[in-house]
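Example (one chain per record):
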Amino acid sequence: MSSEINASADLIVASHYRGAIHAEKLSTQKSVPCLETVVNIVEKIKVIFHPGYFCASPVQDLREFTQKYLAEIHHDLSEQIALACQLENAKLREEYGIQFIKALPTIHNSLIADLQAAMDGDPAAKSFSEVILAYPGYEAVTHYRIAHALHNLKIPLLPRMITEHAHQKTGIDIHPGAQIKDGFFIDHGTGVVIGETAVIGANVKIYQGVTLGALSFAKDSFGRLIKNQKRHPTIEDDVVIYAGATILGGSTVIGKGSVIGGNTWITHSVAPNTKITNERTPA
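Predicted structure:
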């Protein structure tokens, strides 16, 4: 038995030094961000955004409470940024951490608008507490907005770790590179996919099973995918997209105030204030 184990071990070790993994210089010695720590950072941000909802003890002094958590977030995040970026410069990693901390008030304001959109957009929503504690759409958007701030700082790994954690929890897949304005509401949510280069305007509402995806992928002369191009649609302000709709293509624009019906398949732009049925004819 030991000879078979040793032979398998040799093959696994040898595979570490071949192909794409070797090209990225991954090895057993390379430190990477800790998922548990990254998730804990997100949970601490949720605590300061909604004090009293995600901590066991009551908050006595809100300012002191917030300062304490921000200091902890900065410390933990700086360490994870150092691992993600392979930064040895302590001052630089702390500066990245500070830039993220400075973005948190803007994220908080966006989430307040998203929270109001959920209350305004869902007649079943009985309270803000219900949305904060029980709505998967709000949970996914919270993770997205945190991840997007890190994406804007060009921090690798961490943004995807955050949004993929939310994806596992909620069934909602939002790439951290997507650009989403305030007042965004995902109702029900399971099966929603929003691609990296999607642009979503203010006060947009989408339902479960909606895909904002790519129509095709450009390739170079070697057959490799060309990245950093606009591949996903643009959704302008005040659009409603019903369950199961699929909207594809980087040049596809859904005009302001339009309503996209359920189970539609759209690969062309739609004029503002247009209603599209699943027969894809303006109504």
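Caption: The mean pLDDT is 91.
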